[in-house]
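Protocol step 4 of 5: obtain the predicted structure for the target chain.
Materials: sequence only (see below). No template structures provided, no constraints applied. The aim of this step is simply to have a reference model before the mutagenesis design in step 5. Sequence pasted as it appears in the construct record:
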Amino acid sequence: AALTVRFLTRRFIGEYGDMEFIYSHNLTVDGREILFHIWDVPSSQQAEDGSSEEKRIQWADSFVLVYSICDRASFNILPLKIQFIKAAKEGQSQEKVPIVIVGNKRDLHHQREVSSEEGRLLALSLDCGFFEVSAAE
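Step 4 output (structure tokens):
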């Protein structure tokens, strides 16, 4: 949620509830107006039944999966999430689904549990993009 709000408002808010939101946002990229619809799902709600997750996957055109560099468990679930997404999306067509892995909380490097190299290697092995960022900064 912190990254989504930062993207939409350019502000950082540190604490969020455990709610799921859909945001809409217009942005001009390379002279073209692009409408984003962002379905922000907290990690606590991602372990629901498969049908809810399948619905979200079918709704989306691309995916940004965020983990905390200070929380190894949030990183460790990514391979299964990505395999689930690819099976659901790429199984229907021959097109590659755009997926980006984002390591958040780069500013908390003193609490780091997942190295940048691990994030890059995971993204490379799963054919995903990779960034490491700080929503706070």
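Step 4 remarks: The chain has one domain: 1-132. The beta strands are 21-29, 32-40, 63-68, 99-104, 129-132.
Proceed to step 5.
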